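User: Hi! Is it possible to get a structure for several chains at once, not just one? Here's what I have:
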Amino acid sequence: MSIGVCYFPEHWPEERMEADVERMADAGLEYVRMGEFAWARMEPEPGTYDFEWLDRAVSLIGEYGMRAVLCTPTASPPKWLVDEHPGILQEEADGTTRHYGGRRHYCYNSEEYRRETRRITEKLAERYADNPTVAGWQTDNEYGCHGTLRCYCDDCAGAFRDWLREKYGDVDELNEKWGTEFWSQTLNSFAQVDPPRHTAADHHPSRLLDYDRFSSDSVVEYNRLQVEILREANDEWFVTHNFMSHDDLDAYDVAADLDFASWDSYPTGHVQVQREAVSNDELRAGNPDNLGLDHDLYRSAANAPFWVMEQQPGDINWPPYSPQPGEGAMRLWALYAVARGADVVSYFRWRRCRMGQEQYHSGLLDGDGTPDRGYRDAVDAASDLDELASVAGDDADGSSLSTPDADVALLHDYDNLWALDIEPMTPDFDYWRHVETYYAALRERSVHVDVVPPTAELAEYDAVVAPTLYLVTDELAETLTSYVEGGGELLVTMRSGVKDAYDKLHDAAQPGPLRSLVGADVEQHESVPDAMDGTVVYDGREFGCRVWNEWLSPAEEGAEVTGRYDGTMADGTPAIVRNAVGDGSVTYVGTWPDSDLAGAVVGDLLDRAGVETTDAFPAHVRVSRRGGLTWIANFGGDSMSVDAPADAEWALGGSTVGPYDVAVTDADPASLTPLSE
Amino acid sequence: MSIGVCYFPEHWPEERMEADVERMADAGLEYVRMGEFAWARMEPEPGTYDFEWLDRAVSLIGEYGMRAVLCTPTASPPKWLVDEHPGILQEEADGTTRHYGGRRHYCYNSEEYRRETRRITEKLAERYADNPTVAGWQTDNEYGCHGTLRCYCDDCAGAFRDWLREKYGDVDELNEKWGTEFWSQTLNSFAQVDPPRHTAADHHPSRLLDYDRFSSDSVVEYNRLQVEILREANDEWFVTHNFMSHDDLDAYDVAADLDFASWDSYPTGHVQVQREAVSNDELRAGNPDNLGLDHDLYRSAANAPFWVMEQQPGDINWPPYSPQPGEGAMRLWALYAVARGADVVSYFRWRRCRMGQEQYHSGLLDGDGTPDRGYRDAVDAASDLDELASVAGDDADGSSLSTPDADVALLHDYDNLWALDIEPMTPDFDYWRHVETYYAALRERSVHVDVVPPTAELAEYDAVVAPTLYLVTDELAETLTSYVEGGGELLVTMRSGVKDAYDKLHDAAQPGPLRSLVGADVEQHESVPDAMDGTVVYDGREFGCRVWNEWLSPAEEGAEVTGRYDGTMADGTPAIVRNAVGDGSVTYVGTWPDSDLAGAVVGDLLDRAGVETTDAFPAHVRVSRRGGLTWIANFGGDSMSVDAPADAEWALGGSTVGPYDVAVTDADPASLTPLSE
Amino acid sequence: MSIGVCYFPEHWPEERMEADVERMADAGLEYVRMGEFAWARMEPEPGTYDFEWLDRAVSLIGEYGMRAVLCTPTASPPKWLVDEHPGILQEEADGTTRHYGGRRHYCYNSEEYRRETRRITEKLAERYADNPTVAGWQTDNEYGCHGTLRCYCDDCAGAFRDWLREKYGDVDELNEKWGTEFWSQTLNSFAQVDPPRHTAADHHPSRLLDYDRFSSDSVVEYNRLQVEILREANDEWFVTHNFMSHDDLDAYDVAADLDFASWDSYPTGHVQVQREAVSNDELRAGNPDNLGLDHDLYRSAANAPFWVMEQQPGDINWPPYSPQPGEGAMRLWALYAVARGADVVSYFRWRRCRMGQEQYHSGLLDGDGTPDRGYRDAVDAASDLDELASVAGDDADGSSLSTPDADVALLHDYDNLWALDIEPMTPDFDYWRHVETYYAALRERSVHVDVVPPTAELAEYDAVVAPTLYLVTDELAETLTSYVEGGGELLVTMRSGVKDAYDKLHDAAQPGPLRSLVGADVEQHESVPDAMDGTVVYDGREFGCRVWNEWLSPAEEGAEVTGRYDGTMADGTPAIVRNAVGDGSVTYVGTWPDSDLAGAVVGDLLDRAGVETTDAFPAHVRVSRRGGLTWIANFGGDSMSVDAPADAEWALGGSTVGPYDVAVTDADPASLTPLSE
Ligand SMILES: [Zn+2]
Ligand SMILES: [Zn+2]
Ligand SMILES: [Zn+2]
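Assistant: Yes, the chains can be modeled jointly so their relative placement is included. Here is the combined structure:
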């Protein structure tokens, strides 16, 4: 558990380098990431290389007892390279070129660019293969950022045709799987398939979904090309990638080629971009579940402690608004990341940059080199982590405190995300917000959650929560049935079992292959605007529901009805059912519940599964377990208190947790109760 | 009066075909429409045809006592055809190609595509010319849907130049009629004219209006090409087209080549797309005037009973929201269509499709083949219509109940729509909503209305309502003057008589050629935002007005002032005038009235014209007359009651009409009074 | 001081010409502007000229005692010219051509178009060189209107490279000044630089800022080409240009080549386009500060009385809404323009045009040739100005009443505008609205203001107000320091001293080179949404602040804290400081103040500077001084009264000023007090 920083030695006069590195070490930092946009500095002209500045930086980092993380610089090829190979530029769906001028100006499927990528990666790998200060590598930078995951150029057209040939073998197989009989879309050859370019009417959803998969696979392939070169040069290096967008790229697939996943965490930015309405507290510190879902996803993706490769250090340049973060928030974010399973939290950037596109992005130091607010928080975080490691006892390899095995799996899947993005069927449906509704219900009860795809091994979990399991194959249905029969408690929600793996409706009524497991059919579904928000009676109490309603019909000797719509057109119609199957049971929620209803359903699920929980904490307070300790993080602007056992020992803070503060105790989570404010 | 369905035999295994057809017959259906997107199935490879599947479907339909409506498949040419003739694709105004991938991917002016169209149409016409089961044809499908009515490609450029040559003969004539002296737009030859492609500043309105006319004419010409081939093959076939968009295509012009018009009616979709705010009742059942205006337009367009070629069967895929329709709404829509003059109402589609772009569109059967909510309503509608036909006595030819002659004409015109779209002059002006304001005022009084262009024969009508008669020629002014002098009652509203036929201002002040008829000038006009909503005093009462105010100035010995603005800058200025001319009179309303003011003005007009009316019904209840019967349709979610004569006989229901229900009585409309709820 | 009109003789039959000109003279008009869109009439075919219609118009204007202002017709090249030289069309950043069809369809950097421009300008200059009726010229028309100031075509690419070569000499100099090390943007040659075309990520701000400067310079160069030809033909002609957009084009640079600046004033249009919320009064008459800022800018730009070349004559076609202007508003606008320093106010247009893009734009005459509301106001304005000139005594040259020397300079700069547009950092920051906040604070106290760039000579001003002086060089810092040391009172506001001349952050903390002058640093800045609106305590009173907060830190022995944030996260932190330097002092305001706080700070500044002020007038009333008279303009819909000395003489009106009216008195402004309404 340690703190790092992202450093751009190429941005500053070389004479400042040693003072900067010394100061990093003084601050308690252990890792320094470098080089991800420095291609033009590394190779100022075609074939002319200059690595001396980087050699020196690595060398100083080693001298001061830290380790370097290097990056391949492929996210920003120099202009001379683009001018030599203009075909590497991406194209929009309407044919417009995405020109040079920002970053990420290359197509993953350009053979020319793959060649250039190999060349520079090999050069770097070779140069640092024997350098003991270099701990490992980050490939490229934030694949897909700025909407660059999907490209519509001719190179992509060719690669897509190859990808389809590989997947379907015969074009008639594709015709059948996609269902091209609709609107005369039958294809006579793979050569007839283009990227889904601009059309007047909608594209075929099966074609779009395969294009989304192909696009993600293109990045996986491109990334693997780099990983292999780096591994070959030095197999003790770790290789990771810093994820940013969690939308267009399948993080599970990329992570399979990495030693661990890392991601770039900007709490006040994400929360503004990913939500409709944001509170002032969230503008100051972000939202713990908005953050936590990503922490848990990237931890689960590689089944390993993750890194926050870039941690917000203060005010930043890209969200609509950038209020100053709350006092201590930069420390809170680091400790909370560790609580959720991070090994290293690396602030971005060392020093505010005086030039270029990110001048309004703060650093640990201000532009004039004086410590900024983030610096003080980083020093505190480093010192706290040292202290906590000594209390908790670090792992054998010295790099990690263990996280507990999760009792609950939250199923999440990129195919589902993409398919639902293609057919959301209402402007108000958002896959991530639906998933987060259930994630929050678990986390407010202090449950430790793995975020895994439906293909994960489920047997180890006491309960499995599967929000909107949209695409379901017979195989998946069998897996889930076995899980429940074996005593698992499964929660499945609205819009599950709708489609097959090719984004076609199942022959059988929804939930398709899950019908016998769920013990009920979806008779009707409807999307509704806010003005039609409804009510569900569950367990004798009234709750709110919205966005999407399914009218459920239990099979004979099928599921038990546990919730019904109340007072609208669907008055009395089943909305929530539970079906006992083997030694377990499955609950199906056919609407989008308000947070209280999600909490009630999830609470009952956890009870049945025998998962230990706490009372529900308020939305801005989250309790985590790591290294045998209990971490209480307060993302609110006011203090909050917990009722803790009298003999609780506090490794950090105490039972009243200040604003944007963290307390750590040896008391068991289940022994803590939130005190009302 | 009968019920039909749209069927896609090519989407299902052939072995299911007979069971499906049998079930249709059992449900009481009489017509089955097929084939409109099946080109790739009919001609899987260039020149290789396969019609056997369609032969068999037609044959089964005949065997089970029904009749087939076939379609030309030209709305979705196969990919092989597009690859052979990439020039058939349309272009956006900015030059972007509208690529293959959805539907309607062809330009009406492509000679290559017209050749291909002729080929497939002749092939089909020839094959089914002697088949007694085929009742007639639908050409193509929903011309102009997805914004494809206007194309900006080079083929269109050439065709537009020819169209202009034909219209103007000499380029100097065009220069004068358009008024190209403005901004140096004088042309030296027709070859200098391009489609109105992307510019920095606005285009010349006269050029835009002619491009709109040209675009509509291109479709008329393209459609006629198909009609002629079909008529030549079998002159007993009817030929129709299913209109969808009522915006870019002149339905009157297309209908002139058809036996009758049909249209695709999706009540909960249209109401969301065509209005700003929608009530929950409208989300469940649509709005009767939003629907009725189209029913009456398409009935009037061919002066013949129309078909609803596609009738919404339940939840649908394309509006923002798709709540489940109200209980019985699918039956309500069918009966209401018949009440407004439909002969056949054909549900779209037989069965929910498992693949492609419309998986979220319901059918009479669900995807698994079980009856859905629409099926039950369709069966009821078929049975009700049988019953009503027996009560009312069907027409001699067995196909139609007569609709009464309308007492009132509502003038509507595409040239006006397009010209006002080019120069709306405020974001709040919407031609259709303005027309609908007056349509609703007529229909809430149970008046039967024809929706016709200003060129229609008006003498037969007791009253004529002309909302925003924007383009007025001397000839039209004379027609209207003769109508009024002959005893007609004419209502003309704001923004009338503004422009000549070329979208140029008249020399004379507004209302231009209508000045002496109206007996007043428009001194000033203004557009106003909501914050400037105003008041008009009419007949001693205060009403609201909005969006557009004209300050009227009666001529000496001209019109009488009947309404004045009150309390704003224009306080006391005439807003509404009436002018007695010959044996009739003309009323001019110089602002956008609220519904009460529209009702008061229209009520007075009808009184003067001696048109029989009812008291005003609430907005969700409409009374129609057909086949000697009075049809009361309730689009609301609550029951409503009418006060009817004691001896009224009820052919359907009774004097209390349930939610989404219809009652039919022999009582005269004028004998009915809505009871307050 | 006189009234003119814009006239299009080419739009009307030649037989009407004399009647029109006679009527202009009768109305008291003195100038007639013509010809700015008449290229196609002047040169109907390549090389064939027709100036007889224009000769005749000029001749008649002379006969009736008026003078003509002619225009080069280059804003709208004819279609034959575009077809001969299609390369003159501009391109969007995404490569889309801006086609022929509106106006301004040419690229300033097209050598072909410059050749054509020279040809037609020389032809015109030669023809009218000896014509005594022609007083002077307007070049082109509204450069940059419709977003045409910036073009992304290949001609511009080449010209941009030349411009950079000229500016930087060596590409390494450019690399250093821009800071291209960021994101591998280092350039090896000028040939590598393209216009900032469409990219996925943001462009480099330094590149964007130079492109903005280059684009403005391209117009300066293009305009100079015309000016030189005209000056050479007759050096007694004045040459001006009618500015419209005050955003993309540096008016100071263009004005340096002109005899005086003119601009096109549409009060009800500007106020809707440039503000978020508009009151009904503003919809009827505009806002006096929104107008006044432009009047003062264009007067200051050429340091000469300006013209309103186009004055709104009534309702107009281009804003969202066009309510009828308030009664007398067209006269109000003319008199207010004169009060702010206009010599000639020329209404646009003589007569509503029957054809083309501006049919919904009124004229002094209506389309039928009858006087419209604007005509009556224009006649009154002409007569009032005659009367006032006789009272005040006209200047020696008979053309101008002197305006007083301004006591206060408001610093304004296009580089700052552009740089802040590139990095606004919150959707709520608007440079012009921030400048106007301070302009209003000065003007509500009846202070006469020059609007000048920071490079202006400041010594003559008692106080200087510098809102958001974003880009600050050492040289500018020295200038401002000298000004303050010499006894000047300087007000600098938030976001000042942030960047160097190349849009790079300074090494030193903000306010960079202004630190020692201001005596404080900006410790932090933050952008905040409305929900975070805050409070500042200044002078013991609470005021509001919003959008942007800077946390100030006075240097030791530096500035005195005069305002502090209150009640938020920054509670108690300095928000406003004042620093005594030499004989003067500098105030720094680190947030966006509400109007009361701006007023309080500005009021204190004026007190210290000894500038004579009035009490604050309400926002719709403004007091100006010209020709030794005091002009009170009331932009409100209600009368307002002033308390004036008993012996005040009223040259126009009296101490109660009606709605949309103006009163003029010999009393000193400082002797007037607004009476509460
Ligand atoms: Zn590509
Ligand atoms: Zn076309
Ligand atoms: Zn250009």
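The longest strand of chain A covers residues 541-554. The pocket of zinc ion (ligand 2) is lined by residues B 90, 107, 109, 151, 153, 155-156 (CB under 6 Å).

User: Great, thank you!
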